[in-house]
Amino acid sequence: MNLVNRTNKYYLIFFIFLFPLMVAVDYYLIKYVVNKEVDEILIHESERITFSLNENGELPSSSYLLSITPIDKDFPVLNNKSRDTLIYQAYKDKLVPHRTYDFGAKINSKKVKISLKHALLEMNKLIIWLFVTTTLIILLLVVGLFLINQGIYKWAWKPFFENLSKLTNYDVTKKSPVQLENSSIAEFQELNQIVTVLMDQVRKDFQNLKEFNENISHEIQTPLAIIRNKMVLLLESQNLNKKELQWVQTVYQEANKLSKIGKSLTLISRIENQEFTRLDNVDVRAVVENIVSNMEEMIAFKDLKMDVKLNPVTMKCDLILINILLTNLIKNAIQHNHERGSIKILLNEKKFEIVNTGKVSKVETAQLFNRFQRGDKTKESLGLGLAINKKICELYGFQLDYGYHDEKHKLSLGFNK
Amino acid sequence: MKILVIEDNVELLKDIKNFLEDQGNICEIASDYQSALMKAVIFPYDILVVDIMLPDGTGLDIIKEVKKENIDVGIIIISAKNAVGDKVNGLEIGADDYLTKPFYLAELNARIKALYRRKAYKGSKEIIFNEIKIRPENHEIFVNDRLMSLTKKEFDIIHFFVANRNRLLTKEAIAEHLWGDHIEMADSFNFIYTHLANLRKKITKFGGKDYIKSIYSVGYKFSD
């Protein structure tokens, strides 16, 4: 539930509770005020009647007079109370709510109780009107608040939502910083500041890490070259016994491995950095044909049966990358094959597919594309080939799928064109 | 042939110099931009081997300067950057070849020889080693003047061997020469082993001597 809906929900709940409360409070308040007012009128009238009786012993005419009842004792002082009561009105033929006021007096030395009355008819109508107006006010408040809320949501939160979508698309590998929308609201300004600082920090850290990785990959290459050269000199010197020779050979091989790791990691980070921006018109069929012919002797050496079906396909991408990708795939099909096995290559507008015989892989398919993951640990491979492939596929939006059926590996590369 | 090697790492520089001098070349060295530029402009060389990253400048500027002075020299870039951009830049401003560090000295040697032959003899020079004659531009090899039929890789192997005669060629160096950089081929060593056996047979069948010697299990040497 978004912010505006949630706010509206709480407003609504609040008003639902507030409404009966307000009506009740208003009702009793107004009733109290009206009663007090009426009581005052009646008390004033009673004083006028008492005064007239005391002065000249006559009962003055009064429109408020309800009844005069003779009583035995004195009218109790504390008992001259006002009450609500229903009195039958003949002209209306119904009971009408009245306020009455009793007080004691003497007429011709006789004790009497005089009751005065005042109709409450208009007051009841007022209360109904009150109810209606309160309802109206509250409705207007609800609608007004709802509209204001919508307005605030659209206007004041606009930069917030724009920033949100910008941050959603934020890519730490991109060098350009995200420019956040300004807002006149202090909280949003503060948020922008904090987010900007955070993003800068993240980007800086990422850049540092990346540069560190790249530098390591570069910087090891020259020392490795020297190690390798010296090892070859040692091997050529012919003064070594068999054991020493093996040691030197091991160092040489490991140095080679290290160098290959460095080169592959450099390649991966350069793909990640999007340094391959060339868009050549690549004739994919020619690339595949070229790779297959380069591997021809190796294929013949393993006595593999080739079934190559290539349709003409051209694509806009970097020739070097597409060459690395396809070489890796074809090379893998040769390498992870057994003698007198078979390879089937298919190329059309939609996909490049390569199916080859070979042993089943022990690694989960998803992990197969991770760095240093190998299907077959016994072989001399580094497991970086597929990671490179994955990076190239990510760059161009290719879909790389792997499956194993009927003792055959099947790798298909969807071009998504 | 006369070669100037420009490289800021002195140890690597010594390795390259020793290797190239063993091959009968005159090899001079420079380890910084200033002295390299001076030598390259003043003295005549057949080949310049240029490292891109130098302490006080870039090898690309040296190449530009040499090209501006219209000096006719073959140029090979060696760089640790492995950046395709560098490669493209280098070749665009007039370098002839590009090697990524770490390279095998045998590979550098083969590239230098191939470049020298292209420049000095327009590629038409035959390479002769006793009874073996190589015509690189036609991918042809003759033994006792009889043309051997070879696959492309077999030709590449012999060509590589003859260019690096009397030197130990490790299996790794041969594999990289045959298939290039980013390929890690588990079967390549078996392949090389089998093919060399075939090649020996072929050459002896044509009356040639068996020059390919296996050095322990490390690699091979092509020598008398």
From TrEMBL, chain A:
Protein EC: 2.7.13.3
Pfam families: HATPase_c, HisKA
Origin superkingdom: Bacteria
Compartment(s) where it occurs, according to its Swiss-Prot or TrEMBL record: Cell membrane
Lineage: Bacteria, Pseudomonadati, Bacteroidota, Flavobacteriia, Flavobacteriales
Transmembrane segments: 12-30, 126-148
Keywords, comma-separated and alphabetical: ATP-binding, Cell membrane, Kinase, Membrane, Nucleotide-binding, Phosphoprotein, Transferase, Transmembrane, Transmembrane helix, Two-component regulatory system
Enzymatic class: transferase
Record's GO cellular component terms: plasma membrane
Gene3D superfamilies, per database record: 1.10.287.130, Histidine kinase-like ATPase, C-terminal domain
GO molecular function, one term: phosphorelay sensor kinase activity
Chief location: membrane
Catalysis: reaction(s): ATP + protein L-histidine = ADP + protein N-phospho-L-histidine
Membrane protein topology class: Multi-pass membrane protein
Regions annotated as coiled coil: none
Protein name (Swiss-Prot/TrEMBL): histidine kinase
All residue ranges annotated as the Histidine kinase domain in the record: 215-403
TrEMBL record, chain B:
Modified residues (4-aspartylphosphate): D51
One function term, GO molecular function aspect: transcription cis-regulatory region binding
Record's keyword annotation contains Transcription: yes
Entry keyword set: DNA-binding, Phosphoprotein, Transcription, Transcription regulation, Two-component regulatory system
Known DNA-binding region: 124-224
GO CC terms, sorted: cytosol; protein-DNA complex
Swiss-Prot/TrEMBL GO biological process terms: regulation of DNA-templated transcription
Signal peptide bounds: none
Transmembrane segments: none
InterPro entries from the UniProt entry: CheY-like_superfamily (IPR011006), OmpR/PhoB-type_DNA-bd (IPR001867), Sig_transdc_resp-reg_receiver (IPR001789), WalR-like (IPR039420), WH-like_DNA-bd_sf (IPR036388)
Residue intervals of the Response regulatory domain: 2-116
Domain OmpR/PhoB-type: from-to ranges: 124-224
Claim: Disulfide bond is one of the keywords in the record: no
Name used for this protein in its record: Response regulator transcription factor
Organism: Flavivirga rizhaonensis
